[in-house]
């Protein structure tokens, strides 16, 4: 694998010419050749604005699951929605098995069905399919764009540019507004050669994520898969690589299409959705990742990130060094001093052993992955000891053909257990291992606590990511980590036969059939969003969490797993904010809320009064009107927002009266967008942080600052001494500025309606 240091020209889809080696003719037409990518045509076709650099995108369809759709619809309702103007697919794949919270999950599913009837949506009931598999089967196609409230919204292998964002961006599409984004850089992913036997899509994906995550090579950019190697893989196989591009922090992905793409769509009854996509004769890319597929070996991503990848053969050859490094890194993430990751407990006779295997979800549960896993386990057993294997086909349609082909019978006969379509193993709500255990999974993530453990309660397990093929080989070897590409076998996957009968019998198809008289059924836990204040002239922020980790994931900001049972109750869910990272945060934020309430009701807490006295001592603010200052909480994190698109990572801070985040940089666009849509100011630092936990930060004239270039925003740390602090806000659209001024997207849309 090679990462180019500069942009490249791609000639005829096959010849890479580095920019610094290109002739004058190519160099002179660089801007013209930027329009030669697949990405350019799709983005501009969906751009309803006149500016080709600052895009205003309208999508062809949107989708969300039962961890997010209640909040999205509640936001849309508060904003005045009357119907869904584009296909909106509501799936029940994230909370279909989680039993915590009594009737809450099914209450939300009833809410989703009645919302689909009322507003004209498409409703996929529990256990029928995971969100992304259903979209691949029924919605994605050549030249389309789809927006989802799940970070793994990726359908590039079918010719669709798909984007995962927070719920606010879906609300904008429902209200016929736009997704606003600066035209992104486009990175060519040039695939050459052919994968060797035993190599699966997860092996290639882990290799890519390992190469580009830490250096930010594709951060907020589009990955465009080109080159002859694309056609060496089936489209089903490509889907497994494509969905993992999210773990690189790229914005979206797109692949060149071919006859196999067309056949995939024909098999699914949608041949008309095929469109041949390929770069023009000459195309310029802002960077290039060259991959010789024949050089990829069986991979494992060790705890606690998909980018922590190693060849399995490398792990076996250097186990002492690698496991020690992983354990040392874990110490930085696990804040319980009495708890330690000990992978050495899993080493026996020089080999690393897992306690559990899982093949599931949008990445692992595809037809070809499970078929090959069944082939490898045919006539073998998973053993009678601790190791256990569970398999979750990604949809009922996939399950039906696996049954017909005999794959399910082979897996059951090996000792594996078969589950329904469910996303839980990816985020800690299914197949949680015991304390101290190691799981190997073909799912999308292995972040801390996504296996269900709670370090704060003394519980710790860990997950390593592997391909379904190596997991099957590991299962046949009693849990001993085994590389499938070392087994020396050949396998040709039988052609898939798609049967939509299960969907025809159960899926509610309500698009363009909205019924305003339909009653929206709200269970007792489904609550409206609380009223949120508009931005005042000046901000006073109290730092309620100070996080110095290199990256802070959305799972740390708002944990997944059983906390999802409170997803439809904004204040109930907010109780879990930062609970596994900064447990004291909620208590501190509530104190700030109470201070603000007391202050605005005519009183003034002593602590706040002391801070105000210091503010009055700052030159130019001696006579400031205290009523033009609002008190709110803030968090500082070096690089927050990697991982899930779920807007609750921001909304939970906001309903606790969070006013801003202060960072060095944001890990993803989607997290920053979530902050904006919830009326929080996305500050970045121009200097090293010269403040600490529990300090107050005064940001005067914040509303005026929004009308400037925002590159230099003066602020003051109000401690024992008053110290200046230089903040900035990266560019915002006019609409985003107004959303922040209004205090939330809901308030913004209410004002629009009043006009």
Automatic annotation (TrEMBL):
| Xref: SUPFAM superfamilies | Aconitase iron-sulfur domain, LeuD/IlvD-like
Which domain of life does the UniProt lineage start with? Answer: Bacteria
Keywords, comma-separated and alphabetical: Iron, Iron-sulfur, Metal-binding
For this record, the Gene Ontology CC terms, alphabetical, are: cytosol
Identify the Pfam families for this entry. Aconitase
One GO BP annotation is: tricarboxylic acid cycle
A GO molecular-function annotation: metal ion binding
| Sequence ranges assigned to domain Aconitase/3-isopropylmalate dehydratase large subunit alpha/beta/alpha in this UniProt record | 41-472
| Family to which the UniProt record says this protein belongs | Belongs to the aconitase/IPM isomerase family.
Q: What is this protein called?
A: Hydratase
Q: Origin organism of this chain?
A: Coprococcus comes
């Amino acid at each position: 694998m090679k990462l180019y240091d500069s942009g490249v020209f791609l000639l005829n889809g096959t010849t890479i010419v580095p920019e610094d080696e290109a002739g004058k003719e190519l160099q002179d037409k660089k801007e013209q050749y930027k329009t030669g990518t697949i990405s350019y045509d799709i983005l501009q076709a969906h751009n309803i604005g006149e500016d080709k650099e600052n895009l205003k995108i309208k999508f062809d369809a949107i989708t969300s699951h039962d961890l997010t759709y209640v909040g999205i619809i509640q936001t849309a309702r508060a904003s005045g929605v009357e119907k869904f103007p584009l296909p909106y697919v509501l799936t029940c794949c994230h909370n279909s098995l989680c039993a915590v919270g009594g009737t809450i999950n099914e209450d939300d599913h009833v809410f989703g069905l009645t919302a689909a009837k009322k507003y004209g949506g498409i409703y996929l009931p529990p256990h029928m399919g995971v969100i992304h598999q259903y979209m691949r089967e029924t919605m994605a196609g050549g030249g389309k764009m789809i927006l989802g409230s799940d970070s793994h919204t990726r359908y590039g292998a079918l010719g669709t540019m798909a984007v995962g964002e927070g719920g606010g961006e879906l609300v904008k599409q429902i209200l016929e507004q736009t997704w606003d984004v600066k035209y992104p850089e486009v990175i060519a992913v040039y695939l050459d050669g052919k994968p060797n036997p035993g190599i699966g899509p997860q092996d290639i994906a882990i290799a890519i994520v390992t190469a580009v995550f830490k250096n930010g090579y594709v951060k907020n950019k589009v990955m465009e898969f080109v080159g002859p190697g694309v056609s060496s893989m089936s489209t089903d196989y490509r889907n497994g690589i494509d969905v993992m591009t999210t773990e690189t922090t790229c914005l979206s992905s797109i692949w060149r299409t071919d006859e196999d793409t067309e056949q995939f769509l024909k098999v699914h009854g949608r041949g008309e959705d095929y469109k041949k996509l390929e770069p023009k004769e000459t195309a310029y890319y802002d960077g290039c990742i060259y991959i010789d597929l024949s050089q990829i070996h069986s991979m494992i991503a060790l705890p606690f990130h998909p980018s922590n990848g190693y060849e399995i053969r490398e792990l076996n050859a250097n186990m002492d060094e690698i496991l020690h490094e992983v354990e040392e890194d874990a110490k930085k993430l696990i804040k319980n001093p009495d708890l330690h990751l000990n992978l050495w407990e899993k080493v026996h006779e020089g080999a690393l052993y897992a306690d559990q295997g899982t093949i599931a979800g949008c990445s692992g549960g595809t037809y070809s992955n499970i078929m090959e896993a069944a082939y490898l386990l045919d006539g073998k057993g998973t053993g009678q000891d601790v190791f256990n294997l569970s398999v979750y086909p990604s949809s009922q349609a996939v399950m039906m053909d696996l049954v017909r082909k005999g794959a399910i019978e082979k897996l059951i006969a090996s000792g594996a257990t078969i589950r329904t379509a469910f996303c839980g193993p990816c985020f800690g709500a299914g197949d949680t291992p015991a304390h101290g255990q190691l799981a190997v999974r073909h799912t999308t993530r292995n972040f801390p606590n996504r296996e269900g453990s709670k370090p704060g309660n003394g519980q710790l397990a860990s997950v390593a990511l592997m391909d379904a093929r190596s997991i099957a080989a590991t299962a046949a070897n009693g849990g001993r980590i085994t590389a499938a590409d070392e087994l020396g076998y050949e396998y040709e996957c039988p052609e898939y036969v798609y049967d939509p009968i299960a969907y025809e019998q159960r899926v509610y198809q309500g698009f363009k059939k909205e019924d305003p008289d339909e009653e929206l059924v709200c269970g007792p836990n489904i609550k409206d969003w609380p009223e949120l204040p508009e931005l005042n002239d000046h901000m006073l922020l109290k730092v309620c969490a100070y996080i110095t980790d290199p990256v802070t994931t959305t799972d740390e900001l708002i944990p997944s797993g059983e906390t999802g049972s409170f997803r439809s109750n904004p204040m109930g869910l907010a109780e879990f904010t930062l609970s596994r990272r900064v447990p004291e945060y909620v208590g501190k934020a509530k104190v700030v809320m109470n201070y603000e309430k007391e202050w605005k009701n005519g009183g003034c807490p002593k602590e706040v009064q002391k801070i105000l006295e210091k503010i009055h001592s700052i030159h130019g603010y001696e006579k400031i009107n205290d009523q033009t200052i609002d008190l709110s909480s803030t968090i500082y994190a070096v690089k927050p927002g990697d991982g899930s698109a779920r807007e609750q990572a921001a909304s939970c801070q906001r309903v606790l009266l969070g006013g801003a985040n202060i960072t060095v940089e944001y890990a993803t666009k989607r997290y920053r967008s979530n902050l904006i849509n919830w009326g929080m100011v996305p500050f970045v630092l121009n200097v090293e942080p010269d403040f600490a936990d529990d300090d107050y930060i005064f940001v005067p004239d914040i509303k005026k600052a929004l009308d400037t270039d925002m590159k230099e925003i003066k602020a003051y740390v109000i401690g024992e001494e008053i110290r200046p602090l230089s903040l900035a806000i990266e560019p915002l659209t006019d609409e985003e500025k107004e959303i922040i001024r209004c205090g939330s997207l809901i308030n913004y849309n209410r004002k629009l309606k009043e006009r």
